[in-house]
Amino acid sequence: MVTIFGKPLLLLYGQLTLGLVNGAFYALLSLGLAVIFGLLNVINFAHGALFMLGAFVAWGLLTYLGIGYWAALIVAPCVVGLFGVALERVLIKRLRGLDHLYGLLLTFGCALVIEGLMRNEFGSSGVAYDIPHALKGPLNLGFMVLPLYRAWVVIAATGMCLATWLLIEKTRLGATLRAATENAPLVQAFGVDVPRLVTLTYGAGVALAAFAGVLAAPMNSVNPNMGSNLIVVVFATVVIGGMGSILGSIVTGFGLGIIEGLTKVYYPEGSAAVVYVVMVIVLLLRPAGLFGRAA
Q1: Residue-level pLDDT, tens digit, the chain, 295 residues
Q2: At 261, which helix (H) or strand (E)?
């Protein structure tokens, strides 16, 4: 049996694959958080609840309307994104110019309300969502057998992350977003409707979380706690990458997933804490995060 540092190679491959899948979710969710914080300056603690809501919308589309997985990848993020737009217009916009703590407390309260409503309706155990037929079965890579759906999750998440990065960094719309982040009054003076831009940006960040929720739905039961189980790690990812950094969120998300997978192989007892250990080390050496800018 081939081993690396005393551990079977197949075990290492398996945990690295699991780490990549977890990293894909970390990257997608932290990307949405970074987009929202970059423009709105709001720490969106409701992000995990909106991730969960995306999974439930996908389940509801299939159960009540017969709309399958592939259409749900588009429809569910749009539905949750519109909910996010309404949330921003009704509540979050009232906190502009105030301390970050107010936004954190408001979105935390929203998360509790959303999770409580879903728990009251569906219970804590949640509901099942089947893997689409086209993505069932294994994928033989020669050196290991990989579940096809997990491979799809990594590919879809990577594609969405790259598309978002290209949109923000390489397009005119992205340049406008970045300019509004730096100097909103000046951008407003050039005829750009900054409040509308802010609202749509929040909706887009929420839609990214919902897209991740649809991807997660077939992997576990769709339950009200699925977002709260991830959100603390996702916040750690954003802090390590740098608050508001798009590239930092993507690179750090996948990197932390791989580190977590390796830790499960060589030191399983520390796998639950390794993300926070990395966060402490990074903050001691670079308080603004790996890709962040000092205030």
Answers
A1: 455 555 566 667 778 888 899 999 999 999 988 888 877 778 888 999 999 999 999 999 999 999 999 999 999 999 999 999 999 999 988 887 778 788 889 999 999 999 999 999 988 888 999 999 999 988 777 767 788 999 999 999 999 999 999 998 888 888 888 788 777 788 888 888 888 888 888 999 999 999 999 999 998 889 999 988 788 899 999 999 988 788 899 999 999 999 998 898 888 888 889 999 999 999 999 988 888 765 5
A2: helix 246-266
- For residue 235 the two structure tokens come to 């916040």
Distance of alpha carbon 243 from alpha carbon 295, whole angstroms: 11
Which amino acid, residue 54? G
Residue with tokens 């709001």: 42
Q: Which CATH architecture has domain 3-285?
A: Orthogonal Bundle (1.10)
Helix 47-65 vs helix 100-122: crossing angle, to nearest 10: 30
Nearest to 282 by CA among 244, 248, 258, 257: 248
How far is it, in rounded angstroms, from Cα 128 to Cα 137? 18
The SS3 assignment for 67 reads: coil
DSSP for 133-182 reads: GGG-SEEE-SS-EEEHHHHHHHHHHHHHHHHHHHHHHHSHHHHHHHHHHH
Where do the domains of the chain lie? 3-285
